[in-house]
Amino acid sequence: MNEPTSSSSTSNDRTKKKSESSKCFYAFRTGLPDNSEIQGNHDLLTAYGLGPVERAFNGTRRVKEKMSAFLPHVIGELHLDATKEASSLRALIEKPPIHKEISNLSSSAMQGFKLSAGPVDERYRHLFERKQEVDVLAYSEKSNMIRIKPPYDPYGPNQKFLQKRRNDLLKPWSFRLSTDPVRSLTAHVLLSPSMTGMSETSGSFQYTTVPHFLTNCGDSLLDSPLAKKKRMGSRKFAENVPDVSTDDVEKSENWNNSYELLSWMRNDEIGSDAVMEGPFGPRKVVYCDYTASARSFSSIEKYIQSEVLPFYGNTHSSVTVTAEQTTLFMHEAKQEIRAMSGCGDQDSVIFTGSGSTCAVELLVHLLQSEAGNEDVVVIHSIQEHHSNLLPWRKLAKEMRSVEELESGHVDLDNLKAVLKEVRENHGDIKIIGAFCACSNLTGVLIDVQSVTKILKSCNAISIWDYASAAPYIPITFNGETPLDALFFSGHKLPGGVSSPGVLIVKKYLIQATKPKRIGGGTVFFVNDSDEWFLKEVEHREEGGTADAVGAVRLAMAVKMKRAVGEETIKQLEETISRRVFKSFNKTNNLVLLGPSTVEGRLPVLSFLIRSPNSNLFFHHNYISVLLNDLFGIQTRAGCMCAGPYAQKLLGIDEELSREFVNAIQESPDLDRTHLRRQAEYSQQEFLRPGFTRISFPYFFTMQQVDDIVSAVEFVAEHASDFLHLYQVNTETGEWHHQNQRVFHGRRWLGYIQFTPSGLKTKAKIVPDVTDMNTCLRLAQTLALEASQSINLSKIPDGRVAVNEKFQRLRWFVLPIEIAEQRAGRNSQLQGTVFIPRKYSDVPVKQIPEILGKLDEIPKPSENDAKEESTCQVICDDVVCLLKCDDQSTKAGATENVGVDESEAEDVKQMEDWNKRVIVKRIENLRKEEERKQEWQIPPLEMYKKVTDVIHQLKMIRNGDKVLVCLSGGKDSLSLLHILRHYQQRCNKARSTSFQLGAITVDPGSAEFNPRPLIEYCRKLNIDYFYEEQDIIGAAMKTPGLRSICAFCSRMKRGRLAAAAQFHGWNVLAMGQHLDDLAESFFIAAFQNGNLSTMKAQYTTKDNQLRVIRPLIMVREKALRNFAEEKKLPVVAENCPACFNQATERHRIKQLLAQQELIFPDLFNSLRSALKPLLLVVSAHTSEMRTQAVQNIVNSS
């Protein structure tokens, strides 16, 4: 075993001078999982070159970004990453994009990267086309990496926090230049006072001078000896990190990352500086209705204007540049959805027009066969939005509702009881469970996995409404218990205005063969008498002209969400929730609706304001308009399209609900056409019950949140002071200030004129506005003046406007009643017709309040960061090389799909060689514990095919130590269970004795999180090695790289071989099956002109390692059926390097499938034909052809 390379002597000398407690090693900064053997194994750590570990050793993957030549934006997309400053993002918009640099390349340069359906892999295009040297390019595009003075943020860090920053910056300063969304390098630079703009005499430091320092540094920043020495490419293995406090660096980075991106969002949001004209003067618009619909961001819209719209075309063609580019955008947008939600190849992602409503309607259609006579029972929670409730009523034979707990969560016991009752009453009827992941009224998050597990236990279909949850929490479609369908509205994501809805559904559930909307893009062929529709549902159900612009906007909104971090967003939302609930629970007259728990919920609050000295409330529309007029705060009033749950929260039962319907319904005798009635209303519409809802976006500062809370508290206290100034329209229920019956600030399309000099409209004068604190002080004065101006004689008696038979339904106070109270009259106010439901207090964790502004931003752990993308991607069983594009499959590319010692040695020379997690097998388990292990027994036919190959080729021998290359795909997981069963049988028969373990290589992709395999293997009680290597980062540093896929495959093979030998294992078992072998054979023949395929087994050149493929006689569909039947934890195959369209391997797969329809025995014939090629045992390329020819001759 090669010893890890040590640091230079100079570095060692310097290190020796430091105390042991101050050592910081080049290791990640989050602790290993509990019970990991590596944590306390001093000898093993020493062998890695890490030495004693002070602070915390981290074997987990950290998403880094490198300081190198690559620009912070690539063709076809705008990267929004947590490490990018607001100024850098603006610079991207203003600076000509990189594709000008490559526009002079010949058209043939891109032919190798064209895929079958036309699109180019835009995400990795810049890696293939890069021609300039790293340093040259870094210098030429340096302006994109320079931190410029950030825009002014009125809610920026306070002085106390800045003072702490000044003190921290007296230490060696750490900064990070983020030029790539996948990896970054932390460069540690020791700054002198003159460089940083720090006064030597006073020691003071101005944060705003840092940009000037960066600008003035020029080439010295990149070319200084210190900077060069600390670059990733020059680091040596086990080399100590420079003498910089890890804690200080991490705090600095987290502070910058969170603050700068969130600060940019606050400034970039369109409308953040909008001004409205109200009855009390101009007010700055404060948008607090993100739960209903989000807002646009300037940078996103500028990108669309400059990059999308100039090449906009129809997506039903790809022969023109506009059509192809638009198709590419549509496809890439869909891939962003897949990456966010963790979809696999068995899942369909469909854009569905106007939000979740269209998505549910389409889902109902897809679940029905053409006969349409299948009985269905739909089970739902009481919290459902109308979109996830009403469409099912048309389909279901019976609708059943599941109650909620006092915490607001679904009552799982009640769910089980309802499922049991349905099964007893209806037998094997189809059951659909339709649940929301988050209530749009209370913000309570539902335990999706727990509910889904119960549904699956009764063979029910699990469907989830993520409309309110998708913008703020991670989506895991293929988690421990996969969901069957989910949908969400793109317009609810920040930046996703006017974007389509999204439906994700398992393909096996789809029964419809005809599109819901028949039109262009849905048909395969049409003649005079018949039509043939497309079979691929994603194309068939997206008829008409696709909303490509909306899809791009949605994709960018998703990227922005993932840039901030899904776990970070969730924690920010929960932090805001705790803060707001703490204040609102102490606010007089404010009645919060829903459970009192503050954990596991988003800052979405529905409330009523009670009138003092009465049991009545203020009308919800009045509260909403008062917040608008006094403070510019935009809230939502009504029942928020969740009527049944809203009524339960308000305490309205079924009988009372029908009374309200009878009161507010329009008379059926009205002639609507003759009367030209546009709206549907009655004279009693204002009796409709409702409440006010407010929601806080996660990028609000705590100061903004506090200001809004103060405004709500003011309205709760002083609502009665302003009521007499407002008038209500009984036909609409709308309240308006007596001086604001006309919308004075309205924008008119009618003002637009198109002239030869351009578009002209009526100019608007934007008045100066005051901040929120000034508005609060002004509101106090206005409240006093309004209270003194009450004139009882001038206030109309609104009580007579209510029909006598509906008088008891009036639940809100009127201005005349407040005026009579103020005048001292003994008027008796009626009681309210409903009392909001009071939830009991449920025990919650006591989480300490975090004070300050940015200190309240939760810092996600490394594990959280890795899980912020739940799309789990894999290069399954290191066969990824054969999935790459045409140009990467040159002669010999598929011949060497094994491992050799040269690749292993290359891997050992990389700096992240020592990153791994080890799970050791526990010996002598008790029988009860062994029975609890989740080992599965394979089907007899499959098992026999595997054992026949093992015995014929003597793949496994006495004393072997076999490591299964566990990728998380269905093939490798199935192989693990098959070999375990074979081992058990051998032990009983006392025949072959061998050890069994597993190994996984994490390539460091932000799109891939295989860490759940660690816990899975721990439960199986096997030896398991989780190897971490920044392969994707290394690929991005490699100049002239033509295929990330091939590079990843080669590096993974090297890591597998090196790790196996390092840990003392002599056999690697890979999971390629018969379909893989057949496809590889045709790729080699078509692309390389030779007869070759993967070898059944071989020994590496140094004779230290044997590689076996026991599944070579097993079909892929058999493995898939086994994995699905046994519910193995399969991760989705969605490799980011080859995600775009069908690769060569996929095309061959389709070709073989078509031939198999004609020749059902095709693969048996191929198995016989490939046998001579399978028996090649040499690892030397020069010997393989000779052996193959000899085998063919011998077999003929």
UniProtKB/TrEMBL annotation:
Cite the tRNA(Ile)-lysidine/2-thiocytidine synthase N-terminal domain residue spans from the record.
961-1132
Keywords on this record? Answer: Nucleus, Transcription, Transcription regulation
Chain spans, region Disordered: 1-20
Q: Which InterPro entries match?
A: Aminotrans_V_dom, Mediator_Med19_met, PyrdxlP-dep_Trfase, PyrdxlP-dep_Trfase_major, PyrdxlP-dep_Trfase_small, Rossmann-like_a/b/a_fold, TilS/TtcA_N
- Where does this protein have compositionally biased stretches of type Polar residues? 1-12
Q: What biological process terms from GO does the record include?
A: regulation of transcription by RNA polymerase II
Protein name, entry field: Uncharacterized protein
